[in-house]
Amino acid sequence: MHKTLLAEFTAREGAEDEVARLILDYAQKVRQEDGNLAFDVYTKASNPRAYWIFEAYRDEDAFQAHLKAPYGGPFNTALAPLIEEEASVLTFLDPVV
Questions:
Q1: C-beta atoms surrounding 83 within 10 Å
Q2: In the predicted model, what is the mean pLDDT of residues 51-72?
C-alpha cells in the first residue's frame, strides 16, 4: 500500500525566499528517490508563506528509505529556524475506497 502524507509549515516573515529555495532543492532530490511517487510543493493561495507538501511513496519501505536519505537531516536543520512551527506538521493519509 502506498504511504501518503501532507507536510505543512509556515515560513517566517522575511524568510520566504530562503524557504522556497530550500524546499525546491529538496524536492528535486526526493523526486529522484526510487520509491517516491510524488513530492508536490504548494503554498496556500490566501497565505503564500503557508506551505503544503503532498508526498507519496511506493510503500512503507520506500518511506523509511526516504527518512534515511543523507540530505533529509541537513534540510530539516536548515529549515527549522526559518519556519514558525518547531518542525513540519505531518498528516498521514489513507485512501477512501
A1: 20
A2: 98
Sign of the four-CA dihedral 65, 66, 68, 70:
positive
Cell of 59: 510503500
Phi, psi of 37 (to 5 degrees): -105, -30
Interacting residues of 83 by C-beta distance below 8 A, sequence separation 6+: 9, 10, 11, 12, 15, 19
DSSP symbol at 86: S
Q: Coil, strand or helix: which one is 94?
A: coil
CA angle 91, 39, 84 (to 5 degrees): 55
In this prediction the pTM is 0.94
Condensed to tens digits (0 to 9), the pLDDT of residues 4-26 reads 999 999 999 999 999 999 999 99
Q: Are 67 and 88 spatial neighbours (Cβ–Cβ below 8 Å)?
A: no
Ordered strands of the 3-10 beta sheet: 36-44, 47-57, 3-10, 89-93
Cell 503544503 sits at which residue? 52
